Amino acid sequence: MRTDEPLRLWLNQTIWNTWDRSPLPTETPEPPFDKSSADHPPIRPVVGLHGRQAKGYYDPPHVHDRAQFSYRLEGVAAVRAGGSAILLPPGRGVWIPPGLTHEVSCRGPAAYNALYVTPKADPQPRDLKVIDVTPFLHALVEEFLTFEPAYDEAGREGQIVRLMLGEIDRAPASAYAGPRLPRDPRVRRICDALRIAPADDRDIDAWAQVAGMSRRTFTRAFRAETGMGFTTWRQQLRMTEAAARLEAGQSVKQAAQDLGFTSASSFVTLFQRSFGVSPGRYAATTAQVRGHGR
Fold first, then answer.
1. Which of 12-21, 59-68, 128-137 has the lowest mean pLDDT?
2. Architecture of the domain whose range is 5-170
3. How many CB atoms lie within 10 A of CB 214?
4. Which superfamily is assigned to 185-293 in CATH?
5. CB neighbour list of residue 137: distance below 8 Å, 6 or more residues apart
6. How confident is the model at residue 227 (pLDDT cuts 50, 70, 90)?
7. How far is CA 184 from CA 190, 191, 224, 254, 271, in A?
């Protein structure tokens, strides 16, 4: 048995016995404040921070010399990294390896936890990774954020840090990481058009013609470039846009109509499947965040 296994089992038992599986809770101050990794030098292999971002926040393309793991407590962020457009609603996190260019934007106010991890810290993922943050991992991060910057690597605090990194490393990729953007210019042209007009309901044959490809070539190229079929990709794109619209204050009914859904029930079903909550509950939660951000 690994040396940290008893601690992991005890924490897991304690947390899951008291967790009600509601959205990740947090006590956050009202004024927005963002923090930079430069403000947190690597005194130890892992440093962490909690911050808030204001409505309309945008961090242009940049890189870090350390890995970054962040997840939203409230609000929604859109991250572009490694050719992917990643949506981060509450409870979904992204691991960005060092040296990978990425950018972040928020349509509405958001709260987040972030870790910066030096290459010598172990274990850690080596590639871009999107995961669903479990209550256990969230509790570990929250505990870590109470540590002094020069935490005791050899004692309990070091155990928790290694356990925290292990949970990130072993976590399976999220089933809903957002639509990946293609590199092939023919396929990218179609994806860009749908990003501008996600309600466009033209079928595969019509889009293949726009791309100047046969249906068979188009479907093969699309799957090779994005890792999924065209219909699934378009659904994920619409859900990404739906979350952003709800977070910005648009009504559920209007969002469904604007995104091309002919029935509210189909919209609600797909949203629930994608995010684990109904669009109404999601909208109500983000409305509370907007109130804090004023």
1. 12-21
2. Sandwich (2.60)
3. 12
4. Homeodomain-like (1.10.10.60)
5. 164, 167, 168, 171
6. confident
7. 10, 10, 10, 33, 29
